[in-house]
Amino acid sequence: MLDRLHAATSALDASAEPDRVAEKAAALALRLTHSDHARVTLGDRVFEAGGPPATTPTSTDLRAGNRTLGQIAVSREATYNETERQALGIFASHVAIAIDSADRLRSSERVERAHEQAVEVLLAVSSHAVSGQTLANFYSRLARTVGELVGAQRVLFWRLSDGQALAPMSAAGFGVDREFLARLGPTPCAPGREDLASRVVYDDLIFRAGRADESAEFGYVLDVLGVDNAISVPWRAGEERLGLVAAYDSRRPDGFSREDTWVLQKAGLAAGLVTRLWHTQEDLYKTVERLTKVDGARQMLLKNMTTVVEKERKRFVSELHDDALQKLTAAELQLERLTVEGSTADADAFATARNLLEQTETALRRVVFDVRPPALEEPDGLAQSIRDRLAMLRAAGVHHELVVDIPDDLSPDDRTMIFREVAEAVGNVERHSRATQVKVSLTSEEGGVLGVVEDNGRGFVVAERTNLPGHLGLLALRERALMAGGRYKIESRPGAGTRIEFWIPVEGKVTA
Questions:
Q1: Which distant-in-sequence residues (6+ apart) come within 8 Å of 247 by Cβ?
Q2: Whole-prediction pTM
Q3: Nearest to residue 248, comparing CAs of 120, 177, 156?
Q4: Residue 443 pLDDT > 90
Q5: End-to-end CA distance of the chain
Q6: Closest of 287, 315, 297 to residue 478, by C-alpha
Q7: What pLDDT does 472 receive?
Q8: Residues 324 and 363 sit within 8 Å (Cβ to Cβ)
Q9: C-alpha R_g of the chain
Q10: In this predicted structure, which of 41-45, 119-123, 410-414 has the lowest mean pLDDT?
Q11: Residue 313 and residue 471: Cα distance in Å, rounded?
Q12: How does pLDDT run across 303-335, given as a tens digit for each residue?
C-alpha cells in the first residue's frame, strides 16, 4: 500500500491544469485502492475513471489549508479496510495540494499575462496617440489592438451624448459592419439609473457575460446585441464620463476571462486621457488662432487709426487753408485797397470786407466745433452738441430729426466717444449720401448707449465700402466702437439709404 501510495503521489503533476490534475487523480485513486470506480469533484466539474459505481463507496474531502476544493470518492464490491481509507485520505491531501498549486500557478500566469497585455495596450495607446491621425482614427486603431489582445471578434466604443444616452461610434470600432451596427441604437444612460449601461458608465461596473450565464438580464443584452458573449468597461477621463468600451464574441471556447476585462479597463482609462488631451490640444489651437487673429486685428487697428489721424490732420489743414485763410487773405486785400492813397471808401467796400470777416469767423467756429464742441464740456451738453452739428446740415438742404433718451450724468469720455460716433456718421451723410432727410436717435440699452443714424440718400454696397473714396470715416467709426468694447453695424444698398448703428458701453456717472 505504501509503495502504491508513493507511486500515486509521485505521479501527480502540479504544473498541469487543475482539471488535468483532477482527471489523473481519479485514475490513480482507482489503482491505489483497487476500486472499480473513482470520481473527483471540483465544484460543478466531475472527473471519473473505471466502470460504473459499485455498492461499497468511500470518500474524503480535498482540502488545501482551510479551503475545501472538492471531494474524491472510490467504490467497489468489497469493503474497504482502515489502511485503504487512510491511504485514500493521504492521497486526497496530495491531490488537493497539487490542484491548489496548479490553480495558483495558472492564476499567476494569467496575472502576468494580463500585466503584459496591459503594458501592450498602454504602448499601443501611446503609439496611436502620437501618430498624427484624427481622434476617430485613434479609436479605430486602439479598438483593433484591444481586439487582438483579448481575442475578440468585435470591439466598439460607445460615446455618451449630453449625459442622456449612449450611441455607438461607427468610426471607432474593430470588426463591426453595417449589419452589426444596424442592430444597435442609442441606449438611455444617466446617473442614478439602474439599467446596465448606466451602471457601467457611472458606477464603474465591469460587465462580463456569456450564453452560459443564468442571468435573464444578461441574456437579454446578448440577444439585443446578437452576440454569444460580451464584456464592457467604463470609458472615462478622471471624473469625466465619456461612455464605455466593449468587446464581443470571444475567439476562445471558454469566452472572455476576468483578465480580459483588466485589459479593457486599461484601454478605457488611457483612451479617456488621450481624448481629454486631444480636446485640450484642439482648444489650445483654437485659442492660438483667435489670439493670432486678435493680434492681426490689433495691427490693422493701429494702422487704420494712424491713417485716420493723418486724414483728420490733412482735413483740418485743408479747411483752414481753403476756407478761413483764403477769406482772411481776401479781406486783407479789400482793406488794403481801401487804404490806398487817393481811394475813396464806400459802403459796398466796407460791407464786402465785413462779410468776408464774418465768413472767416463762421469757418473758424466750424473748425473749432469739429475739434471740440464747447457745449460738450457741460454735463448735459451732448444733446446740444449734436443739435448744433445737425443744424449745419441746413446749408446742404438736409432736414434732420433728433431723439435723445439717455442719462445726463455720462462721463466726459463717454460723451466725447458718443459725439464722435454721431459726428462721423452725420459727416458721411453730409459728404456722400445726397440725402434730404436724416434721423439721429440715442437711447439707453443694456448698460450702454445705442446710437442710430438713418438717411434717405443714395446708399452703397456695404461689402465695397472700404473701396469707396472718402469713406475712411466709416472705418474710424467702426474702430472707435470696437476699441470702446462696443459693437457696430451698417446697413445700406444702392438707392435705399443707409442705416448706421453703434452701441457703446458707458460708465453711467460724471467724473470730476
A1: 146, 147, 150, 152, 154, 155, 230, 231, 232, 256, 260, 264
A2: 0.45
A3: 156
A4: yes
A5: 117
A6: 297
A7: 56
A8: yes
A9: 47
A10: 119-123
A11: 16
A12: 766 666 666 666 666 666 666 667 777 776 766
